[in-house]
Design goal:
- It is a single chain.
- 61% of the residues lie in helices and 0% in strands.
- It is an all-alpha fold.
- α3 runs antiparallel to α4 and α5 packs antiparallel against α6.
- It is elongated, with a radius of gyration of 18 Å.
């Protein structure tokens, strides 16, 4: 299974004579809600971020912790579209944007560098994550 969202527009484009497909030649079907949900969440990057964040929590200097957490957040935000583009071969800009936003929402829900801010409350992330996850899969990247 390819990581790129297969939309109704892709199916329509494939049915045109002489079209070349970047999807496997077997039966190509439009991705459903749960397929999109899986493909939009960059689980590999969230897992990597959680692992590295666990290592950073071993630091004791608060200034270092703040710098490392924000730096890691920015690095992983940049890595998300690069990973999807280079490793998973995702070409759709909308999918890259949604996946980046999904990563940000996951980090926010986990706390990450946001937990260092005075305005942050874990309840915000606990509410935002399921709402975002349920709503985002309704979108179909073109």
């Amino acid at each position: 299974m390819t990581r790129e969202i297969i939309s109704a527009w892709d199916i329509q484009k494939l049915s045109q004579p002489g079209s070349e497909s970047k999807f496997p030649a077997a039966t190509v079907t439009q991705d459903g809600y749960f397929d999109r949900l899986f493909k939009y969440i960059p689980a590999e990057l969230v897992a990597g971020y959680i692992f590295v964040l666990g290592v950073v929590k071993q630091l004791t200097n608060t200034g270092e912790i703040r710098i490392f957490q924000w730096s890691l957040f920015v690095v992983f935000c940049i890595l998300t579209p690069l990973y999807l583009w280079r490793v998973q071969k995702v070409q759709k800009l909308q999918q890259h944007i949604i996946s980046c936003l999904s990563f940000v929402v996951w980090v926010f829900a986990l706390g990450g560098p946001f937990a260092l801010c005075s305005w942050y409350n874990p309840v915000y992330g606990a509410i935002l994550l399921p709402l975002f996850t349920l709503i985002v899969a309704i979108l179909e990247a073109e």
